[in-house]
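User: Can you help me understand a structure? I only have the sequence.
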Amino acid sequence: MPNDVDIVFEGFDTTDDLDDGIGISEQFLPDEQNDELVRHVLTKGVDLQEYSQQIEHELQAMEDEQLSSYEQNEGALLELDSEIRSCDEVLGHMEKLLANFKTSLGAINTDIQALQSDSLSMSQRLKNRVVAEKQLDKIIQGVVVEPEAVRIICDGEVNEKYLECLIEVNKKIAYMRVHNKQHHELKVFQEVMPELDRLRLKASARVRQFLLDKINDLRSLNTNAHVLQSSVFLKYRFFNHFLIERHPEAAVEVRDTYIHIMRHYYLDHFETYQRGLTKLERTIADRADVVGMEESSKLSLFGTAKPIARDRANVFNLGSRAEVLDTEDPRAIVLSVASEASDKRPFEELFRSYNLALADNASAEYEFIMQFFVSPKARQKITGSDMARMVFGHIFEPSIRIGEAFLKTYLESTHDALGVLLCIRIMTQLTGELQRRQVPALDSYVNSTNMLLWPRFQAILDSHIESVKRLSSGRKSKIDTQPPATVRRYAELAASLLRLNSGYNTHVVALSLARLRAEVQAYLTRRADASADQHAALVFLINSDDLLLTVLAENGFTEREEEVSSWKQVLAATVLEFAESELERHFGYLKQFVVDAEQQSDIGQISSDGLSHVASTFNAEWRAQISAINSSIIQSFSNFRTGTEILHAVLGQLIIYYTRFHSLFDKRFARRAGATAVCQPVGVQNVMVEIKKYRNNF
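Assistant: Let's start by predicting it. Here is the structure, written out as tokens:
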């Protein structure tokens, strides 16, 4: 350690005498009873002075050790002291800097607050300017018309560019009229409004002339109106909408001119088409073609017998005529093609073709009217639909009258009930198609047509009914057992009417058929009653009923139809009556005996001789009589199914009567079973075995 370093420890003096130390030790010794060390020293007998000196030496050694440690770290301590002083200076400088920065931040905060206030003020001014700019821009855009647009409207060619400029001018006019009250004090409105009005009049005049020129192009018959409508009028339909809104007088003139020209356009075309269709008509029936046509002949002009055409094709039989309702071809008849082929057709095909043409043209015209003559605003209102109907009615009224006259001419002379009903069904289909197309303009035409068709249909059926009523029953002589032509005509007509009523279930048709059926039944009954041969009369009735049911079955009708079920009931009753009659002819004695015997109250009252006589007679001839019945039925009925049913019915009745006879016989002779004087009847089983032989004779 250097000699020039003097370390002074103030308050720490180690130069006192030992005596003084001893005194101090004694002075500060604690209570011996409470100090374990003192108690230990005292107990061991240690010399306290020596012990005190030892302690002093230990303390001196520790002091020297500490002084040596301080001397060794003197440089580090001085360096630490220097660094601490340097840090104090730096911290003092930083304190000054932070104080200055705080002052600067306060000034900046004041500037920021000022800037924020200026920014809010500027933002509000900007918003106000934007709002004002929008309002001014809207007004400017609403009233200012570009010079080029003005030039085109006044002097330019009427084309697509003209259409664009007119749409723009119309927007300006609409804006001015809507906002005139709100901004009438603005000078721009006061100056622009008169100029726009003059521009409106100029545009109206030019558009009016353009539309009238195009409408006049429709006068030529060679012009395809629908092509011109789609390529020109619908393309420039805004021109007419502009006139409707901005110049109603000019719009009315355009509309009236169009109505006048298109009225004659359609009239000429439909009149020509109707005349061409009339030349293609093939007459189906005349006044003489009724169900109750007399079977006689009528004289010609020179007195020769001229046979009446019976069962003329398609008069009563629908055949393929119903295909006019099922065809999926929507095209009308092309006159040039049909005329070259000399293709004569029934009226219902001509009627369908005319109405197809009428419906197609009417649908296209109505849609055009709705788009061209009804403005978009009015189209959403009832008035728009009324306007379209009014225009359509004026245009198509003559064409509709031609169609009605075409139908009336046919109805006045026709006696073809099937043709009239086919026309009714065609109108029903047409009604559905018009509803699908949403074209209500032809509703009145459809209603008037139906009012013409239904009464005529009813009148024709009434004539058929009256013709059957007028049929004579003939003289009381031998009757022809084959069905008369009247029956086949009625059967074919009934089947045809049922086919045309399928899916429609029209009450008028069903009621008329019921009346006609009743008259035919009455006629057949009159014919049968007029015959002297009751057996032949029953055969006649059965053959007639069977023919009716056969024709109905061939057309696919079953007992679910009232027509079929009614005739089956009549046939069943007639067959039963025939079976009783046939038994009366061949086994009348057996039938009469059984009926009389069963009326006796006591079985003993039945004559045994009578029983024996019936048994012996039956035993002798029953096989021959059954064979005779079989032969008679084979000769009378050519229909396998009907003949079999009738044979089964007759032989079934025979078994019933013979079984009843056997029962009476057994009861009467129960106690005399072994009597030889009584003739035993043939067993029922033997008869049934014999009958089975004739089961498959047909």
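Now, to help you interpret it: Strands lie at 298-299, 305-306. Residues 43 and 68 are 38 Å apart (CA to CA). Let me know which part you'd like to focus on.
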